[in-house]
Design brief:
Helix 1 packs across helix 3 and helix 6 runs antiparallel to helix 7. Strands 1-2 form a two-stranded antiparallel sheet. The protein contains eight helices and two strands; from the N terminus they run H-E-H-H-E-H-H-H-H-H.
Length: about 160
């Protein structure tokens, strides 16, 4: 029961590859008898021969990888191409640091936790690079007695 010829004709008529032509197994005798294009076309119209949908690429593996990357995985030394400075420039690092510090200082001043002179002093210290980050600045403020020891614990650090 060879239907190679019919399959080739159907592929040409359906404008697809031979692998995408589906033939109903129960009507195999009718398909074998169909030897002209017109007869194959008639079988296509009746639904005995059909065109299968295209196979797509599965997104499963990619979606899994994206999920892992969103959690911070797959970023080890073996994955890194650029230098430390190329991946995040020192300027961008500084901008991130200074903006968070200045935002916290403004909040402290506006809420009345520190006065204007303390604000200005710590603003200039931050500009000079004294503090590693926001929490380091808060630690300095606490040590020098400008803010309460429990500041940052009840309001989650001003976030």
């Amino acid at each position: 029961m060879d239907v190679k010829y019919q399959k080739r004709l159907a592929a040409q008529i359906l404008d697809c590859g031979k692998d995408r032509v589906w033939i109903d197994d129960t009507m195999l005798d009718e398909v074998i008898e169909a030897i002209t294009r017109e007869e194959v076309r008639e079988l296509i119209n009746r639904g005995v021969i059909k065109k299968l949908p295209k196979d797509g690429n599965s997104r499963g593996r990619i979606n899994y990888k994206k999920g892992q990357k969103s959690k911070g995985r797959r970023r080890g030394y073996g994955k890194r191409k650029g230098t430390k400075g190329a991946r995040e420039s020192s300027k961008d690092k500084w901008k991130k640091r200074i903006r968070s510090i200045r935002k916290e200082l403004k909040k402290l001043r506006d809420d009345g936790n520190i006065d204007r002179s303390t604000y200005r002093e710590f603003y200039n210290r931050a500009k000079g690079g004294t503090f590693e980050d926001r929490s380091d600045m808060l630690l300095h403020l606490k040590m020098e007695g400008h803010i309460d020891e429990d500041y940052g614990s009840e309001n989650n650090g001003g976030e």
